[in-house]
Give the backbone structure.
Amino acid sequence: MTAPLLGTTAAASGVAAALGADGYALVEGCIDAEHVASARAEVERLLTTTPFGRDDFEGRKTRRVYALFAKTRALDDLATHPLVLGVLDDVLGNYQLSAPTAIEIGPGERAQPLHPDDAIYPVPRPHPELVVNVMWPLEDFTAANGATRVVPGSHRWENELPTPSTEALSIEMPAGSALLYLGSLWHGGGANHTEWARVGVVMHYAVSWLRQVENHTLAVPPAVARALPERLQELLGYNVFPPFLGYVDGRHPRRLLEH
Ligand SMILES: O=C(O)CCC(=O)C(=O)O
C-alpha cells in the first residue's frame, strides 16, 4: 500500500478531499532543503536541554519540545504554511494551534500506542472534524527510523479499537514533506530500529471553540507574542471564535498585545 501522494502543486481542496477519503494525505516538497536545515538546527539546539518522555505514550527514548513558539522563530513559517492553512480553512473553518511539538524518536524506541488525537476531547464519535495534524519530517522518515504510522480509513471508526492484526502503514517520506492527518485517524509514532534519532515537528490544530491542548497565551510571553505576525498571534490564541468566544475583559484578545 502506498500513501496518497499529491505532489508539490497540490491544491488545498485536493488535500482536503484526500483527508476525507483516507484520513491522511502526504504532500512532498513543501519546504526546501535550506528551510529544513534551519528548522532542524534549531530543534537540535532545543533538544539538548529536553528530557526524555515520562511514560510509554511520550516515549521513554523520545524527547518532545513543547512551548515551541516561546523558544524559537524557526518554525513560524511551518505553522502558517499557505497550503496547510488552505486545507484547515476547508476542513476546520475556524481553528487555532493546539499542541505543536517537536518530536525526536531515539534509537531503540518502541512503537507508540496507536491513538486518535481528538480522543482528548470527550466528544462521542462520529463527530465533525475537531483536529488536524501536520507532521513535518526534518529528515527522511523511514519504516526503520520511526516514521509516523497511520491506519488508513480509521477516521471513520466509531467504537472500533485497533487489534494486533490492525494494519498500520508507516508513512515513508523525504524531509520537506508535510503529512496531514485528521485528529480522528488512529496513528502513532513508529519504533526506531536504527542508531540515529528521527526528528520531526508536529503542528496540531483544533477548532477555535475547543480548549487548546497547550495553553499558548501562557506559554509564550506577551513580549514575544507581540512581535509575531498577526496570523500566528491569532493561531496561538489571540483571537475569538465568532462572535466573541474568548474575549478578555469584553474585548478582542489582540488588544492585549497593543502598546
Ligand atoms: O512522532 C510521530 O510520528 C507521531 C507522534 C504522535 O502521534 C503523538 O505524539 O501523538
Notes: The chain has one domain: 12-257. Residues 103, 112, 117, 135, 148, 187-189, 202 surround 2-oxoglutaric acid (CB under 6 Å).
